Amino acid sequence: MKVRALLGLLAGLALLLAGCGGGSGASAASPTSGDAAPRTLTVLAAASLTETFNAMKTQFETDNPGVTVRISYGGSSDLASQIVNGAPADVFAAASDATMKTVTDKSLTAAPPVSFATNVLQIATQPGNPKGIATFADLAKPGLKVVVCAPPVPCGAAEQKVEKATGVTLTPVSQETDVKSVLGKVSSGNADAGLVYVTDVTAAKGQVQGVSFPEAQQAVTNYPIAVVKNAPQADLAQKWVAQVTGEFGQKTLQAAGFGAPQA
After folding, report:
1. What is the annotated signal peptide range for this record (predicted)?
2. Which of 10, 50, 82, 168 is spaced 20 to 30 A from 178 at the CA atom?
3. 120 phi and psi, to 5 degrees?
4. Is the dihedral of CA 102, 105, 106, 107 positive or negative?
5. Confidence category of residue 263, pLDDT binned at 50, 70, 90
6. What distance in Å separates the CA atoms of residue 147 and residue 194, rounded to the nearest whole number?
């Protein structure tokens, strides 16, 4: 009887162990085991790239399942300062070589920046151009409320180049931190006119009216992009740069009014 009881106990133990082994195998073959771990790509980009980079974000996330692209837009000079001060980022896309130089001077890019687009200034007025602004010199007329970008910001630096080239000095009612802020002042009626990029007027879709002026060609803005040194997602950062400089990115940028990158 004792032998029979012992054999029964051993048989039960064998079944228990077999059940545990089967459970372990099922776990290893669970449906989620092959899914990619979620990853976040952090991009710092000039405010004038908002619409185009949002379109690229959608495409990039579709092409890279499990990846979320987080883009922080702002004035290029502010973004450059954030990187210099240690803000985590994978990619930096600036609206001028000067602001990118702030980062490269500190050896904070993984490789030399690559130019991917150009842009030019345009006067933004309220729809219908009620003040009849036709030239850059018109912005200096008494009583006209004009807003521009602050000098450290690329659009502000470009505006100052135009002032120097034309000999026309503007007296703005405010200097904004980026082009979107300038655009907002005009579209809301708080300003009669503002200097933004031609792409910003296009993106506003009728909220403002654009007035081109030939002197803008003397202050063409170049856009460089680079992977940040020690980027947390360096491989994804390289893919993002490749998308921006590749066929899809270039078509997206040109459709928005950006010019071809400088050689």
Report:
1. 1-28
2. 168
3. -135, 155
4. positive
5. confident
6. 5
Rounded average pLDDT over 115-141: 97
Give yes or no for a contact between 52 and 116, defined as CB atoms under 8 angstroms apart.
no
Query: What does the alpha-carbon distance between residue 162 and residue 165 come to, in Å, rounded to a whole number?
Result: 5
Q: Do domains 37-118+223-255 and 121-219 have the same CATH topology?
A: yes
pLDDT digits 0-9 by tens, 197-222: 999 999 999 999 999 999 999 999 99
Classify 261 as helix, strand or coil. Answer: coil
Task: List, as one string, the DSSP characters of 17-33.
Answer: HHHHHHHHHHHHT-GGG
Strands 193-197 and 146-149: parallel
Q: How far is CA 256 from the centre of its chain?
A: 14
Rounded to an integer, the average pLDDT of 118-134 is 97
Q: Hey, where are the domains in the chain?
A: 37-118+223-255, 121-219
Q: Residues 137-176: pLDDT tens digits?
A: 999 999 999 999 999 999 999 999 999 999 999 999 999 9
According to the CATH classification, is domain 37-118+223-255 in 3.40.190.10?
yes
The CATH classification number of 121-219 equals 3.40.190.10
Burial 228-240 (b: 16+ CB within 10 A, else e): bbebebeebbbbb
Strand order in the sheet with 146-149: 174-176, 146-149, 193-197, 121-125, 209-211
Residue type, 157: A
